[in-house]
Amino acid sequence: MRLKRSKDYKRYMNMYCQTFHFRKPFQVLVDADFIQAALDQRIDLRTQIPKVLCDASKQMVSPCTMALLKSRGEDASGAFLASKRFEKRRCKHQTAVDEAICLGQIIGNSNPHNYVVASQSKKLRSQFGQIPGVPLLYINRSNLILEPPSDASMNKSKSIETAKTHASTRELQTLKAVKVTGAGKVSVDTGLVKKLEKKQESKKEKRELLKAKILKKRMGPKEPNPLSVKKKKVVATPKPAPKATPAPSSTEGDESTEKKKTRRSKKSKAGKASTEAGNESSS
């Protein structure tokens, strides 16, 4: 790689790191045509991509691109085997869909996971060029090329830089309290300054209350693990005792004994009469 080109690439990646918070190792999302072109040109992507990005990188492939390479048959068998060496990037599709749809859903509207897209499709590169913060790679003959940042990326970086240099809303409010007379004297409106201070204090108090609530939830007493706690023994409820029958009174007891005696006496008398009658008949 030429020295000038390597300097340009380094400047591009520094811009992505500073404004869009790219981290090392860079994640490179590779499509099917890019893998096939690298195989045709005999480019080792695991060694050449880190040279172009000027730092460590890891190549990633979605299951939809692997399914596309597999569906091409024997012509793309080498590219399919090469894609197996890369790290897999999961997608939401249970069945394989079009590669452009899959990559578009992964990148989204703002490239939240900071992917570098390596694609041979001009249509796909122009689509991702409209999204700020998406570095683009492609192969031209036997050279691996990093495209310069798109207009969307440059406009976004400029807006971020201007926001850093310009005064914030808080600073503008404090400037309103300062008054300059025609003689060049500077006077400060104390009433406005006090109001601003009160607003800031109230905001700080609200933030502290929210933090205290969050800490209470996190640092509060934790419940024991239900698997480590012994189960409570189920205590059998005692059955109600049967109602005690009232004991018979003394008078009732006497009456019952008298009745029993009378019954026995009657039976004994009847037995004697029957024995006497038998004796008479025998005589």
From TrEMBL:
<dbReference type="InterPro" id="IPR057776">
    <property type="entry name" value="UTP23_sensor"/>
</dbReference>
<keyword id="KW-0690">Ribosome biogenesis</keyword>
<keyword id="KW-0698">rRNA processing</keyword>
<feature type="domain" description="UTP23 sensor motif region">
    <location>
        <begin position="216"/>
        <end position="233"/>
    </location>
</feature>
<feature type="compositionally biased region" description="Low complexity">
    <location>
        <begin position="271"/>
        <end position="283"/>
    </location>
</feature>
<protein>
    <recommendedName>
        <fullName>U three protein 23</fullName>
    </recommendedName>
</protein>
<dbReference type="GO" id="GO:0006364">
    <property type="term" value="P:rRNA processing"/>
</dbReference>
<dbReference type="Pfam" id="PF04900">
    <property type="entry name" value="Fcf1"/>
</dbReference>
<feature type="compositionally biased region" description="Basic residues">
    <location>
        <begin position="260"/>
        <end position="270"/>
    </location>
</feature>
<comment type="similarity">
    <text>Belongs to the UTP23/FCF1 family. UTP23 subfamily.</text>
</comment>
<feature type="region of interest" description="Disordered">
    <location>
        <begin position="212"/>
        <end position="283"/>
    </location>
</feature>
<dbReference type="Pfam" id="PF24779">
    <property type="entry name" value="UTP23_sensor"/>
</dbReference>
<dbReference type="GO" id="GO:0032040">
    <property type="term" value="C:small-subunit processome"/>
</dbReference>
<comment type="function">
    <text>Involved in rRNA-processing and ribosome biogenesis.</text>
</comment>
<dbReference type="InterPro" id="IPR006984">
    <property type="entry name" value="Fcf1/UTP23"/>
</dbReference>
<dbReference type="InterPro" id="IPR029060">
    <property type="entry name" value="PIN-like_dom_sf"/>
</dbReference>
<keyword id="KW-0539">Nucleus</keyword>
